[in-house]
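INFO  loader      accepted 1 record
INFO  loader      residues=760
INFO  predictor   begin
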Amino acid sequence: MIKKALLIILMLVSGVTFGSLRAQHNLFSHFNKERNGLSYDSIRDIFQDSRGYVWIGTYKGLSRYDGKRFKNYDRSDFGVTSDFINVIKEDLDGNLWIGTDNGVVIYNYAADEFRRLSSIVDSSVKVPDDRIFAIERNSAGVMWISSRDNGLYSYTPTTGEFIYHPLSKQTPVNNIYRITIDRNDNMFLAVYCDNIYFTSSDASSCRPLDLGHNSDIFKGDDVEGVVLSSRSNDIIYVASKRNGLVEVDLRSGRCTTLYNLPKDVRPTNLTYDSNKCLWLSTTNGLVSYSLDTGESHLYLSDPQDQFSLSDSYITEVYKDSKGCLWVGTQYGGLDCSSPSHTNFTKCYTLSDGTSLEGAIVRSFAEDSKGNLWVATERKGLLKYSDGKLRRHKADIPQAVLALMDDGDCLWIGSQKGISRMDYKTSVVRKYIPFDTENRDNRVVTIYKSHAGDIFVATTVGVMKYDRQKDRFEMLPQLTGITIEHMAEDSRGILWMASYSTGVYSYDILHNMLKAHYSPQTGSPDIPDMISSVCVDPADNTWIVGFSSGFFHYSRKDDCFRNYSTKTLQPLPTDVFFRAVCDDFGHLWLSSDAGLVDFERVKQDVRVYSKADGLLDNEFTKAAIQLRGGLIAFGSANGFIIFHPRNMRGGDQLSQVTITDMYLDYEPVDKVSKEGIFSGNIDIQDKVTLKYTENSFGFSFAVLNSAYPASDRILCMLEGHDQQWSDVSVVKTMHWTDVPAGTYSLLLSNGELHAILQAIK
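INFO  predictor   done
INFO  writer      dumping tokens
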């Protein structure tokens, strides 16, 4: 039998991500071993390589994060007896230098293999095999290495020269804990419980840091970090146990304390980011210090705050190329604060610190002064103003279900009927909207029409408020129907969503009702379970289904078009609760699997999750568009506010890559790479398979930790597939029983026109 080859050519196309405005202090998402597959929950070092991968060194191995998954390595991969990772750095060739408790290991990315440093240097040269504290690279590509017992070494990749540097005979400098290299390749050496030393670029001379009358300031101190200022060559910043955070002027010797630490707290690391902010890691919290304003902020772990640090013992802080702040902890794993988190203002605690966890947000209303009123179960009526959320004390039930602003008053629906509260006096007038108090008085929703009429939906029908008589009267046509939500179009048609009988359109002026679903006839127009309706600025009507996606109503054709996981990718679910139309042609839909942004003209979908800064991936039926274009959505743990214009746009480029290949749904590295490819999959131009290996797949990633919502990935096996497949959510695609032949795997970020033109 003749064996034919299956050839796959891999083409990668970059994507685009978008910037954001900072609205809050840093809020953190969490990664650990149990939930996310991290190697271990005690973090030692964090580093982002030139490809965009984030590497995490732990007490028990090394993890690589691609924006969605962790890939782990341990001592069986390293070839050393220790998987205690202290430091990670990259050389000019893209190889990773990994300092362990048992020497240095080098990871060759192209070959996808680890080698001990001792295997690449002259065998006559003694290579440190003890604990490696620090590794740094200078401008010439020389790798500098500090060993716990033996001091300082250098390795020059271009020549293979490995040198031991005995720095001082008078003052032994061996226990070098940190290495900082300045712009002239000179080095600052922080020696454990000793001092800071300054050495020349070739380490031919070494001396304690000369600061005049302050020369003894760090003598005998535990220096945990030295960073260079971006503003001046003569300024460094030092973190030490005795002195806290200090600004040091090398020319004058002046030392200025920027932040004092309590006696029982010691620093563990110091980082300087591009925003002129110092990040001080300590044994009890993370400190940010702005060099522009002099303001500081202490971050601690708070069990009552899901967005606080997972642990207050901080071991490492790293700012990646996308602006994400990565925080390693001693016991709580890895935390990350993404710039995308600041797109969403999160309201999840009251001004007195009380958590809103479990306090289901049911409805919103905005008054003429811009105050946002929030209806909750368990916490009653809340008021959000001036960035603070407060409980409003009024004579109303604790379980509030519906709200509606009416100029000088607020209509409040609950399990016990409807009330009206005067804004100025907070006086509450209670209404019983039925002939008898023995019937179900639960108010589901309240709506004010364009003409000023107030409609109240209850569990037994819809009522209309008579302003002259100051009472509610049942609409006969809508008696016995439970309406969940209402919205009015420009013609005065009131669209009403029912959870059990589909959707209705009610002509207010002519008092005419039309049902678009009938349980008796089984009308196919619309399903029975509808959660809400929405009318956009162009007067399009949108129907939001509870289990069947969402629908667009065409007035011209008098029919509904369905959008679901079967027809529109990458929709994460078919369960939707509310829809809000913004001023930019986008429909925002809350669901049980995140927040969906649907661009109505291009039919483009983006999905936002907790990774993007949401409070939760599951929402409630509360939603509102506020003055100024802001949008709010509620959940069971509070609510979010954002502006749609902040969600798209920007010029940050993202790298689309292939992370894994599968044969018969098994990773190739577990099966065998032999005869398929060598090295990492993302550097391959061709993959050759036997004709029997015709069931294969790939995992994809956009190395874009800052804006996960922009990770749009489309793929197509050209020569086999007839159309693009959206893998933005799952980031994996498999093909089975592929005939023998030559195929090209194409990846796109969603900008199809540009990519298709390029392919031609």
